[in-house]
Amino acid sequence: MNIFARFAKDESGATAIEYGLIAALISVAIITAITLLGGNLGTLFTGIAGRLNVTERREEQLAALPLSFTGSKRLLHHPLTTPRHARAWRSLYRWWSSHLSTIALLFFPFAMAFAASSDLLTMRISNKLVLLLVAGFALMALAIDLPLELVAMHIACALAVLVVGFAFFALGWIGGGDAKLAAATTLWLGFGLALPYLVYAALLGGVLTLGILALRQLPLTPLLARFVWLERLHDRKSGVPYGVALAIAGLLVYSNSAIFERLAA
């Protein structure tokens, strides 16, 4: 089986201990350098977002307009819309605003929570979950009238992360499940939030790795050994469930994304 087929089928959410620590140390070094140079992390992220994502900033401003300019409510103002149809669209729009938007807003956090728990308990991140995130983004983009330019930039960002993730998988540094989860997450976030997301993931991965190393120094009591996932975490031969760090990092930056701001408006 070639490397591409193995990558497509691989759902491993385990990352080697040493690479989790290396990623964390690199992130700490970056943040320390920024601090010593008199800057701050927030300014760095803002500047990079401004350079990489001018189009996204413009589209976020358009997304902040009242919904009458975009989405289903535009049909209310169409000259061919009859009063009867207008009433139907108003009812549908009110239902969307009060119910579906809340469900849509929580879709990504629930997916991240499921990914984290799945990786923690099984060291696996299902391909079905990754596909669900991709499909969810596509539906959300249609539902909120996300401009095609912005959709294209999000897709380009996800593909870039996927390529890097594939390279790391080929080198044996991370699991295929981790690589695909990171790509699907950045599909929702875009270029402007990709860097803070990856830095937070590396830092959280380092903390997670140190915590697991500390756990493995302690004896596992018979009571705790009854839990298969704890016994797996305690095994020195197993890796780190890096999907937990990736998911938490995604939750930390999600509220700054164009999709979240559009749905929460």
Main attributes?
265 residues, 2 strands, mainly alpha, single chain, two-stranded antiparallel ribbon, 75% helix
| Integer average pLDDT | 77
Describe the strand arrangement of the main beta sheet, using strand numbers.
1-2
Strand content: under 5%
Order of helical and strand elements: HEHHHHHHHHHHEHH
List the uncertain runs: 57-81
Shape: globular
Oligomer: single chain
| SS class | mainly alpha
Overview of the molecule:
The chain has 265 residues and is mostly helical. The protein has one domain (3-54, 107-264). Helices cover 75% and strands 2% of the residues. A two-stranded antiparallel sheet has the order 1-2. The protein is globular and about 70 Å long.
Brief rundown of the structure:
The protein has 265 residues and is mainly α. The protein has helices at residues 3-9, 17-36, 41-52, 54-63, 83-122, 127-143, 148-170, 176-189, 191-216, 222-225, 228-234, 243-254, 258-264; strands spanning 14-15, 240-241.
SSE arrangement:
Blueprint: H1 3-9, E1 14-15, H2 17-36, H3 41-52, H4 54-63, H5 83-122, H6 127-143, H7 148-170, H8 176-189, H9 191-216, H10 222-225, H11 228-234, E2 240-241, H12 243-254, H13 258-264
Antiparallel strand pairs: 1-2
Helix pairs in contact: 2-9, 3-9, 5-6, 5-12, 5-13, 6-8, 7-8, 8-12, 9-12
